[in-house]
Structures are given as structure tokens and as C-alpha cells.
Amino acid sequence: MKLANYVYGQWLEGAGDGIALQDPVTGEELVRVSSEGIDTARALEFARNTGGPALRALGYEGRAALLGAIVEVLSAKRAEYFDIALRNSGSTEADAAFDVDGAIFTLKSYARAGKALGPARHLKEGARVALAKTDAFQGQHFLMPLSGVAVFINAFNFPAWGLWEKAAPALLAGVPVLVKPATPTAWLTQRMVEDVVRAGILPAGALSIVCGSARDLLDHVGECDVVSFTGSADTAARMRTHPNIVARSVRLNIEADSINSAILGPDAQPGTPEFDLAVKEIVREMTIKTGQKCTAIRRVLVPTAASRPLADAVAAKLASYRVGNPKSEGVRVGPLVSRAQQAAALEGLAKLREECETVFGGGGADFAPVDADPAVSAFVQPTLLYCDKGLDARYVHDVEVFGPVATIVPYADTAEAIALARRGRGSLVASVYSGDAAFLAELVPGIADLHGRVMVVDAAVGANHTGHGNVMPSCLHGGPGRAGGGEELGGLRALATYHRRCVVQGGPALLEALSRDAADAALLGS
User: Fold this and answer.
1) What is the pTM of this model?
2) How sure is the predictor about 492, in pLDDT bands with cuts at 50, 70 and 90?
3) pLDDT tens string 461-472
4) What per-residue confidence (pLDDT) applies to 188?
5) Residues 1/186, Cβ–Cβ less than 8 Å
6) Which has the closest alpha carbon to 99: 292, 262, 258?
7) Enzyme catalytic residues
8) Mean pLDDT of 292-303
9) Distances (CA, A) of 482 to 232, 341, 381, 420, 424
10) Strands 19-22 and 29-33
11) Smallest Cα–Cα separation from 44: which of 229, 175, 201?
């Protein structure tokens, strides 16, 4: 079966044989994808000229209702999506829930939040500005929805959530969506789009999908479009310098590589709640989705005295996790999504091992995944490393192994902990396990400008925290520097990406008329 593309209001198969999507456990071919012969310029024009005006005619609360209807469709098909995730991504039930349920939860959040904006069609920002000696001539800032398309070029690890965490604020803003999912796991994204389209929820042109190669898609984006990319820093760099992106100053939002840290404070010694909470979260981040998360813990920064006990505690828990075919009883860690990702992860792990000691795992001769043939499957054994080279280490701070691998790095004092965290050169998230007020007062401001999110966990927070790797729709997702410099989510703040600030200068009657059809932009901060 070849997955159809949905463009200019039509379901179209791409030409040629296409690219095969495979089961990462058995190597079985599942479906094929192709974008050959798809007119991407026409797809974008149809979305701009047909989907955009129809969406923006509804106002914010009307579009919020559409998101609510999408939730109902996806919720009813949840079991089917779990099956696709199992077959195409090798997802355990917990992994599939993380992706599929995360998508549904995010849509619910925006459906609920969007109601607060009411029937308005644009946003008013701040008070009027006097521009003359009398009130005859004034200025008013507005945020106007873009008249273009939100183009999503997404990563393979979250085929469900990756679509809807971006699409929810874009559609709520009144901007149509065209998604190009990562090829290896495009099946789940395509099925969700198909289900929503066939349910007739959205206006024609509001949601499109191109499966397979992006081909010449970026050649046709324009000044009022937004391109959002999640993936490698190398690909992101090429996109930043794409001639059409540069020439037309296309708004580009990027989430790229991230060497995220978990940091234990000096008080997080063995036997304390903070130590135990850190162990639990490190193991969870190494194993959920087999470490294939942009937000996963890659480095664990620990006071020297606690570093070996922490390594022993994490290794002991990892030893109890069964790795293998997610269909087999008791398996908690599945494969990577493809043999190509397995090869990349093993290559990165080999570099890390040049400067690290292996505490647990490593994929030696004694590693055998449950009910799977290593010759055709894509497994990587959860691996914990230990590096005592600190800031002199190279690969630990620069190589992101996109799999179940983390490295413990001891530090001597708070200044060194800050320096090590900053050596990641920009991360999506750092989690800190400490109740030491003096330590936190120095560390958090010391790393905040190079992190999109800092999560602090102490005994009082306990099990109530949302998780190092969990991206909550009400909070910012993104990070500076190496992490791409982009911003997503953050509640209604995300709508700002799909609006353009403009000041209208004129008489009071005009500004009053424009303001009557506007919601207060201050609501974006809620």
C-alpha cells in the first residue's frame, strides 16, 4: 500500500515505487510513501487562497471548537494509532501513549484556551499612542493573523504529537497547515490527517500532507508563510541559508539538537528524596521511547562524592528492564525506529566511549533483545557511561546519541556545574534535583539563558512534577543556541508565531472599529 498525499483538496498517490516504511523489530515492509509528481507550489497556493480565508472567517472561538472536534475524532481512533505506532515505530504501549495521548492532550488544551479569545479575528496590543497634540491622530498596535501557510517539516520520533503541538496554535490563529512528516514514521501522521479530513471538520485547504521527500517545497514559501522544522542541526543550517528563505525573509522556527542535563545539587546525596527522584527520572528518560526524545537526559551532572553511588543506582534499575519486541510480555524498552537510526546511535556511542567508562550496557555480546533477530531489528541496549574529564571532555558535550544513552559527569562545585551545563551550548531543558536554596539561587540564573526550560525538583515537589522530558502545552518548548533558537507552545503565547505585529495610525473612529473585532493580546500571556 502506498500512502496518499492530501493536497489542493485531493488524495493523490505519488509517482514511482516510493520509499518503504518498515517494522523496526522484524524488518517487514509496511507501507510506501512518495511525493513524486505532487505540485507543492499549487498545494501552498490552495492552502493560502482557500483554507486560510475560511479559517479566519470563523474567529478564535470558532476555530477552538474545530480543535475540540478533532480531539473527538482522534480519541475514537486511539487504539488504531497505538497499533500503527507499535508496527512502524516499535513503540511499547507507554511509548505510544506518550506520543498519541500527548497529541490529544495538547489539542484539548488549545481548544479550551482558545475560547477565552472569543469571536475576535485579530488581537489588540497595548493602549493607543498619541501622535498629535489632540486625539485626532493616534496609533494602535495590532497582531494580525498571517495570510500564509504554516509548513511543518517534522522529526521521526513524534509522528502524532509533533504534528498537533504545532498545528493546534496555527489553526487556532487562522493559519492553514501543510505537514511534511519524517519519512520513516509518516504512517501515523498520515492516518491522523486522513481521519480528520474524512470527518469533514476543517474547511478545504486548512490541512494538507505531503509524504516522502520535501522536494522543492521550500522554493515556494513566501513572506507570510511560517516554516517550522524539527530535526538535526545540519539540516537546520541548510534551511537557514536556503535562497528562497533568505530572499523572502520567511519566518523560520527551528528545534534542533540538544544535549540536555539532569543536575543533582550538593544536598542530593544517597538516601535523600532528591537523589531517589533523580534516579527514577534518569532511568525513565533513558527508556521511554528508547531515548528518542529531543528533551531526553543526555548528561547527568553530579557532585563528585555522589557520582559513583548514582551510577550504581541507575545501573541497578536499568538491569531490571527487559529490552525487545514490544509485543512480548514484560518488555519495557523497544527498538529505535530504523536500522539507520540504530547505526547513527551506535556510531555516536562509539565516540562517547572513547572518553567514557561504560557503567552499564554498551551492547556487548551478552545483549540479546527479547523475541527479535538482531540481524534485522534496530535495538540499542540502554547504556550508562561515566566521564571524569569534566570540561576537557569533547564528545560528551557535543555528540547527541539519539537513543537510550546517558553519561554521568562529576563536578567539584557550583561554578563547575554551571560551566558543564553551559558547555551544551544551548539546550531545551535542564532538570535540577535539589532543595538547597543557596545552590539554586546561583545555578538557575547561571544556566537559564542557555535553556528553554529549567525544572527544579525537591522533596516538597516529589512525584508531582510533570517530568524532565514532558513538554506541557501551557509552558514554553524550545531552546537557544544548539537547540535551534525557536519557541513553541507556552499556552496562547504560541499564537504570536502565526501573527504579525502592525501599528495602524489614524483617527479614533477607525481605531475603535478595528478594536471592536479584536481580542486583548495580553491574553496570549495566559
Assistant:
1) 0.96
2) very high
3) 998 999 999 999
4) 98
5) no
6) 292
7) 255, 294
8) 97
9) 10, 20, 27, 15, 8
10) antiparallel
11) 175
